[in-house]
Amino acid sequence: MTTALLVVAHHRGDSLTARVADRARLRLEKDGHTVDLLDLHAEGFDPRMTSEDEPDWSDRDKAYSEEVRAHMRRIDAADLIVVVFPVWWYGPPALLKGWVDRVWNYGFAYGRSTARLGGKRMLWLALAGESREAYAEHGLDTALTRQLQTGVSRYCGIEDTAVRFVYGTVPDDEAAAAGLLGATDEILADLLEHRPAEKGKTDS
Fold first, then answer.
1. Does the record carry Oxidoreductase as a key word (predicted)?
2. CA-to-CA dists, residue 142 to 105, 124, 132, angstroms
3. In whole angstroms, what is the distance from residue 141 CA to residue 163 CA?
4. For the domain that residue 149 is a member of, what is the CATH number?
5. Over the chain, what is the mean pLDDT?
6. How confident is the model at residue 194 (pLDDT cuts 50, 70, 90)?
7. 197 occurs within a structural domain
8. Structural domain count of the chain
9. Taking residues 55-79, what's their average pLDDT?
10. Is 172 helix (H, G, I), strand (E, B) or coil?
11. What single-letter DSSP state applies at residue 88?
């Protein structure tokens, strides 16, 4: 049985983001995954960088804070990482950006000759307020995809990675939500058709 780390970045438990994440949880469990739900806001994660968690470029084995090391252990344990978040100002919210800044840190997620996270699979599931056409017109979907897929996942050795958008999430009403949850099902079905890759190993 494989483990999926399901990361949620929203301050409201009744948000559309939370509903999409719950839909993802149910689908992952149905597919046979053990799901580790990481609700960043509910767990009180602080996205602000601290001196304790600032990278030391001369020491890739620096011991980061216990909070960060606990998150690192959860990433280590996962075969599949699914991140569900709203797109604000055409990027991830500060809560999620701070999680990447503090947890996907030097010596853990990158900075070694053998990628510690190599072999994992990853899906960034972005809830976008505007339409697919509006994003494509300005190339904003391409820009965010490159930032997350290349700038984070692949930089950290995760080659099997994808960024998918659920478009038109504003306004958030029940009629629209039903269609958006259906779109989520299609995205997850496409992802889960592929067999999970084996975990990568880290060097010393």
1. yes
2. 25, 13, 11
3. 9
4. 3.40.50.360
5. 89
6. low
7. no
8. 1
9. 97
10. coil
11. B
